[in-house]
Amino acid sequence: MTGAVTRHLRVSPRRLIFGILAFTFLFTLYHISPLSNGDFGRPVSIWPVHVHPPPRPHRPYPPPRPENPGWNSEAINWPGRAEEVKRAFLHAYHGYEEYAAPKDELHPISNDGVDNFNGWGVTMFDSLSTMLLMELHDEFTRALPLIQRQNFSMKQQHAPPGRKPPPAYAPFFETVIRYLGGLLSAYALSHEPILLERADELATKLAGAFDTPFGLPAFGVNTETGNYSAKHYTILAEIASCQLEYSYLAKVTGKKEHYDRSAKIMETLEKGNILRRYGMFPTKWNIMSGEPTSEGLSVGGAADSAHEYLLKLYLLTGKSDTESLKLYIQTANTILSTLLYVSSPRGLLYVTDVFPIPKPSHKFEHLSCFLPGLLALGAHTLPDSAFDIEIPAPIIHWKDADELGLYNWKELHMLAAQGLAESCYQMYEDQPTGLGPDEVLFRNGELWVKKLREWRERGRKGPPPGVFAKKTHEVASVVPDYDIRSQKYLLRPETIESIFLMWKTTGDPVWRERGWRIFKALESETKTPSGYASLYTVSKPHSILQNEMPSYFLAESLKYLYLLFRDDDLVPLDRWVFNTEAHPLPVFEWSAWERKKFGIS
Q1: What ranges make up the beta strands (E) of 481-599?
Q2: The pLDDT of residue 210 is above 50
Q3: CATH code that applies to domain 297-432+440-473
Q4: Alpha carbon of residue 425 to chain centroid
Q5: What is the pLDDT of residues 442-464, one digit of tens each?
Q6: How far apart, in whole angstroms, are the C-alpha atoms of residue 257 and residue 246?
Q7: Which of 312, 447, 537, 552 would staple 487 via disulfide (CB 3.0–4.6 Å)?
Q8: Would you list the DSSP string of 208-247?
Q9: Per-residue pLDDT tens digits for 525-570
Q10: What are the phi and psi torsion angles at 41 (to 5°)?
């Protein structure tokens, strides 16, 4: 038996030579392939979509450098840091309860309250979802009776003796994102019926704002008479930042009227040739004609949340609202080709306004620092196929804009997110207080797509332009890249929001460390005995404080910091969507019955 097996295993000289040649070929092929150096499965980075990549893909670009040499994220007690943020929230909210409630906001220096958002207690409403995420049940329980008693009536306006008081209006945009968003999010997190009842009642009282020819909400509405303000000209952010709240409210109440109000806004935005003409929605609108009144393009305070809600409406509705997705992709691609610039000599990537097209202002607002987080969220949650859309409208093309058509759009979105987040953080790092200014003006800047073309023509050596900004001491020039136009720090959340989303989408712990540095600066520079206050000047340590503590500081800034430091995932990005005031709403899908009832195609 053994002899028979041995005989069958004998190999002829011809077969032996063939086997050696085959082994040599396979061995050589392995060692010249990407597999030999552990690159298997790594993404190809920034290769033109119309050009086949070379056999060996680029390695992913390195993450941002840690701010502290020898820093080890794993050795840090991140849950302990989350508890410090919780204590900061309690300090601020207890100060509000003691000195200001039931007024809207706390004056953290004079220790009294002010009614500046309808007089319904906006800080309490805006803080509900933060309380629930932080498991502050006592504070939440104390707030419920006050919410139950609130009737959303208009406060009497004051007037000089002998004159009739002016009509009172609730500002629609702020009321929706702070009050309505706060109620709906708290209901989703707690399932307290009274919260949904009050949300439904408030939305009904705000309905008069939509009684315009094209359904675009007016700036203000009287919640008792239903009359809306006479102001016909408004900004994009104020007419197109309520779709999340009204869509979710329609879902949980089953009321068609709430859905129709959101759908009418989207219908007006989609009509005609507006997006084709500009590539994105202009900032100024006439609510009576349903048309833009200028060609100004921006992602700053006049437009920010409107762009944000295009992506988030798609995500909130279980990725079913494909029209909203198309609007978002077109808008984001236009931003990348039209509004992004790179400074000199530090290479800071920034987003600015253009008006008239194509003249850039080179102004960079703190409010615009929501954008890197939005771009990262889109790149993280959307499939590659979602980005397969034509490049922006020809009317706004520079000759260099076609350059972006050579790249993978999804990767460009993530590169822009990283570069902008770096710049937003550097605005903080550059200041002696460790807190960023409200607005800067860049001295020199070149269009990002032009810098990308130069980088590609150099053989893509080094990281793409605008992705890794240099610190001030790393450049020889003594001339700064930007001048500060507004020294104030208004406790704004946008940079913290993007830092949180960069951490969630990349997993790079350097973003957590940066968030911690900002939190320590807040503690050092803005804390008062009763709360936290805005700064007048970020360029001088321990500068004069401004006697205000906006409700968004508790709703957004402290919430995002708390979630950034938690090791568990309290708000998974595939199951929740944050409204523009950081109130998380749960992702849902329309049932067949709802689609038929609401007329959803």
Answers
A1: 482-486, 534-535, 545-546, 576-578, 584-586
A2: yes
A3: 1.50.10.10
A4: 14
A5: 998 999 999 999 999 999 888 89
A6: 9
A7: 537
A8: GGG-STT-PPPSEE-TTT--B-S--EEEHHHHSS-HHHHH
A9: 999 999 999 999 999 999 899 999 999 999 999 999 999 999 999 9
A10: 85, -5
What the block records as the tokens of 2 is 């053994």
| Within this chain, domains 104-154+167-271 and 297-432+440-473 share the same CATH topology | yes
The CATH code that applies to domain 104-154+167-271 is: 1.50.10.20
* Nearest one of 374, 402, 383 to 313, comparing CA atoms: 374
Contact 435, 522 (CB under 8 A): yes
Among 159, 175, 99, 87, which residue's Cα sits nearest to residue 547?
99
Determine the pLDDT at residue 242: 98
Q: Is 583 helix (H, G, I), strand (E, B) or coil?
A: coil
Give yes or no for residue 118 having a pLDDT over 70. yes
Cα–Cα distance, 201 to 218 (Å, whole number):
19
Nearest to 538 by CA among 436, 463, 386, 458: 436
pTM over 0.85: yes
Please name the amino acid found at residue 355.
F
- Domain ranges within the chain, ordered by starting residue: 104-154+167-271, 297-432+440-473
Q: For the segment 23-74, what is each residue's pLDDT rounded down to a tens digit? A: 554 444 444 443 333 332 323 333 333 333 333 333 344 555 556 655 677 7
